[in-house]
Each structure stands twice: as structure tokens, then as C-alpha cells.
Amino acid sequence: MEMKLEARDVAPRLATGVFILNSGLSKLRADQEMAAGVHGMACIAYPFLKKLDAQRFTRLLALSEIAVGGTLLAPFVPTRLAGAALTGFSAGLVGLYLRVPGMREPGSLRPTQSGIPLAKDFWMLGMGIGFLSAHSPRGGESANRCPWHRCGRH
């Protein structure tokens, strides 16, 4: 089964992949202070992460970001698989946005000034979910993404 990369998926995969890959590469060079900050914020949202050393956590996060970014950038990786990686990764980041105090306005999903950098994770989650619906083989053809056109009447 051949899975070709559709032209419509190139731009979002490229933009998101480069962004995540850059973030991971930056974290690989994290000093103790940066690692403590990244780890501290993650521990607020996910307390079980306190068991990990800050440097180790930041390195694992960096490697995860590099893997997800690389998956999105690799043209031979099917878009649905890249979407699964992006969805899982960004869902964890959305959880961070929702759980860390001060990221949202009280009683709202609207970000505060501090929360704006994390609010972008909703876009990544949306793209990942969209990629999951890509290229569903039916009778050798890719499914049309538009639900109104799936019935075959265009």
C-alpha cells in the first residue's frame, strides 16, 4: 500500500515540524536553570513528573520534540502516522495550558499574556486531529476530507 504525501499536507507538516524540531534542539542545550524552569512548569500540570530529575526530563522532552518534528518533516512518513504523533504530543501540551495557573483568564479558555505561548498548542492539536482523518483508503482511493462529499455526489 503506497502512501503518498498530499500537497495539501505539506505546508502544515513543514511549518509545525520545523517549529517543534527547533524547540527540541533548543532544549537539548538547556542549562540547569532552563531545565529547572521547564521541569517545574511540567510538574505543576503533571505531578508524577517530580520523580524525574530536571535535566533528564528536559532531555527526554527535547528528544520527544525532535522525534515528533522529524516525523512531521519526513515525507515518507504517512500523514496519519505523523498526525497521531502530533495529536499525542500536543494533547499533553494543551493539558499543560489548562492546568497551570495563570495561563487562562479566570473561568475562561482565553489566554492571559503569559498563556499566549501555550495557547498555540490548540492549533497543533487541531492539525494533528485533521491529519488523523487524512488518506483513509477506501477501494484504493483516499477518502475525501469533506463529510458532505463522501457520499460520492459532488
Largest sheet: 2 strands, antiparallel
Q: What is the helix fraction of residues, given as a range? A: 55-70%
Assembly context of the chains: single chain
Chain-averaged pLDDT:
87
Total helices: the number is: 6
Strand order of the largest sheet: 1-2
- Radius of gyration over all CA atoms, rounded: 18 Å
Describe the structure.
By secondary structure, the chain is mostly helical. The protein has one domain (8-133). The chain is 60% helix and 3% strand. It has helices spanning 7-28, 32-45, 54-73, 79-99, 116-119, 121-132; strands spanning 137-138, 141-142. A hairpin with a 2-residue loop joins strand 1 (137-138) and strand 2. Helix 4 runs antiparallel to helix 6 (121-132). The protein is globular. Mean pLDDT is 87; it is low at 139-143.
SSE order and pairing:
Elements lengths: L6 H22 L3 H14 L8 H20 L5 H21 L16 H4 L1 H12 L4 E2 L2 E2 L12
Antiparallel strand pairs: 1-2
Organism: Streptomyces sp. 900116325
Keywords: Membrane, Transmembrane, Transmembrane helix
Protein name: DoxX family protein
In short:
With 154 residues, this protein is an all-alpha fold. Helices cover 60% and strands 3% of the residues. The protein has one domain.
Considering the chains and any ligands shown, give keywords for the structure.
single chain; 154 residues; mainly alpha; two-stranded antiparallel sheet; 60% helix
